[in-house]
Amino acid sequence: MFRSRFTRRLPAVATVAGLALAVAACGGGSSDSAETAPRATAEQLDPNADLTKQSINITVWDGYTPKELPEKVKEKLKVSKMNVTLHATNEEAMTKLTVGGDSGIDVAFVSGQYAQALNEQGLLEPIHAELIPNLANLYPEATQLSYDKGNKYSVPYTWGTTGICYRTDLVKAKPTSWNDLLKPPAWAEKKVTMMTTERWLALPALKALGYSVNTDKDEEIAKVKELLVQQKPKLLQYDDTTFGDKLKSGEAIMVEAWDGWCPTTDEKKNIEFVVPKEGSDLWVDTMVIMKSSKNKEAAHAFINYVLDPEIHSWAAENINYKVPNKAAMEKVQVPEGSLLGIKPAELLNGESIIDLGQASTKYTRMSAEVTAR
Amino acid sequence: MTTSRGRHRLGALVFLAPGLTYIVVLVLVPLALVLSFTFFQRGRFGGVIYEFTTENFARAIDPLYLGVVGTSLKIAALTTLIALALGYPTAYLIARLPRRWKTIALIAIVLPFWTNFIIRMYAWIILLNGPGLVNSGFELFGLGPYELLYNQGAIVAGLLYSYLPLMVLPLYAAIEKLDPQLREASANLGASGFTTFRRVTLPLTLPGVLTGSMFVFVPSFANFVIPEMLGGGKTLMVGNLIRNEFLKARDWPFGSTLATALVAVLVLLLLAQAWAARRA
Known about the structure:
- With 373 residues, chain A is of the alpha/beta class.
- Helices cover 37% and strands 16% of the residues of chain A.
- In chain A, strands 1, 2, 3, 4, 10 and 11 form a six-stranded mixed beta sheet that branches. In chain A, strands 7-6-8-5-9 form a five-stranded mixed beta sheet.
- By secondary structure, chain B is mostly helical.
- In chain B, strand 1 and strand 2 form a beta hairpin.
C-alpha cells in the first residue's frame, strides 16, 4: 500500500525521461486536438449489447485493484478480453490518455481534478447511470464531490483526507489545530515533519489562515510562505514518504499525513490521527470512461461490477483506503483505531484540490523560496 | 598509400560506431531536446506547448535561483576539498603498498559501490539520527544527543562518503605512475621530504588532483537525493530545483532551462580543468 501511494504522488524520474521523448516524438498535436474536440454528448448505448463481442481495457495504479480482477470480470461479464495497463502517477495516465488519438483505453483510474480536466477537454463519455445500477451503493455524499457534482462523468473509487498524525504518549497536548504543527510548542520543536509536495506543503498554512486550498492569490500565498519560513527552523524535516516510520521510532511526534498513511493500527496503539478544526482537503480517485472507447457498454458494466460491495470492499480491506461505497464499507471489518472509520460527512468537509493550471507555478516558487532559505 | 589510409579510416569508424551511436542517441539527442524545450511554454499536464517564448530565461535569472546555485557551489566545493584532503594521503599510501595489498586496498575503496546507493543512504540515516548509533555512542560518555542529521553537514557527509572513491582512484593512478627515481633525485640534491612533495610529487600528480576534483565536484553539485534524504529536504540544491520543476510543478520548459544552465556551468568547469591540466 505504501508503495502504491508513494508512486501515486511522486512520479519516477525514469517515467518523465521517457515521457519527454514520447511527447517530443508525438509533436504538439495533443493539446490542440484536445481543445478543439467536441464536448461530450451522450451517445445512445444499448443496455442489451452483446458483451462477448467487447473487450475491456483499463489503466490503473499498480496494486490498486485486486490481482484476479481480469479473470473475475471475464467470467462475470462474459467479455472477450480484459487488459490491465498500469500507471505510476496521474501525470503518466494523462500523457497516455491525451497524447495522440485513440489511447485504446476504455476505463481510466485518475484523481478527481484530473477527471475534471479530461472532461473539460471533451475526452470523457458521460456516465450512463441507467447502465450502472450499483451507483445506488454509493454514499449520498459521494455524489456531491465538487469537481463533478452528480457524478456526470466520473465514478469515485476511493477517497480520503490529510491531517495530523501524532504519538499520543509523546505529545503534551493533543493537536487540534494546524497551528500546533505550524507553530510547534517548545516540547515539539524539531520533532514535527511536513510534506514536501507543494500543494500539501501549503495546505496546513492555507487552512490555518482560512484560505481556500485552491487559492491563486499572490498575497495569500505570500502569507503562507511567511508562516512556513517561520516554521522551518522548528522542523525535523520535510518528508512525504517515511513520516509513519519516524513516528513509530519517536523521532517525530507530530506529522502532516494522508489518512491512509498514518499507522494508527500499529500494535502499540500510541498513534492517532486528527483532522484539524480549520478543515482539510478531500482527495478522490475516480473511474472515467473515455469518449474514444469502442466498448462503452462493457465499460459501464465493468464500473457497475467494481461498485459491487464484494469487489469494492477489497480496497478498504487490502490497501487501507476508504471507499465511497456504503454497501461495501458496511461489509468491512474496521480494525480498532483504523481510519477507515472516518465518516463520509466528515470527509466532505474537506475541500477538493483542483488543478490550477498556470497558477500552480506560484506554489512551486513559494516552495522553492521556503526550502532554499 | 591513400587506399591504406582509407581502409584505416573505415576500420576506425567500425570501432567508433557503438560509442558514437551511444553518444548521439543517449547524450546529444536528449541534450538537444532539453535545449529546445527551453524556448517553449508549459503544458498543463507536463510536456510542452510549442509556442516560442524567452520567458524561461528571464525567470531563471532570479536571486532565488542564483542563491540556490550559490548553496550548491558551497556544498560541492566543501565536499571536494575534504575529499581531496582525505583522498590524497589515502592514494599516496596505497601507491606505496606492496603489490598484493594494493589490490586489496583498491577493492576496499570501490567496495561500497557494490551496495545499492539508497540503502547506503538509509544506513547513514540510521547512524546519524536522534536515537541512532552515533548518538548512542555519545550517550555512553554522557554526551549529546546531537543534531547530526537533516542539516547541511549531513549532506556534505553523504556526498563525501558517496564520491570519495572517485577522488582516490585518479589520484592513485597519478601517484602510482610517478617515477620513484624523481623523488630520489630530489632527495639527493638536498631537498627535504616536504620540498620534494611540494616541488616534485604534487606538480606531477596535479592532473590526477584536477580529475579527481571534477569527479567529486560534478556529481555533488547536481545531486538531489542526498539533500532530500540526509538534508531532510531543508536545503535546496540545483538538482532538487530541476527535479521539482519536472516532477512536481510539471513545468518542463523551466526545468529544461535550469538543466541547461547547470550543464553550461559544468561544461565551463570542465574546460577550465582541461586548460589547467594542460598547463600543469
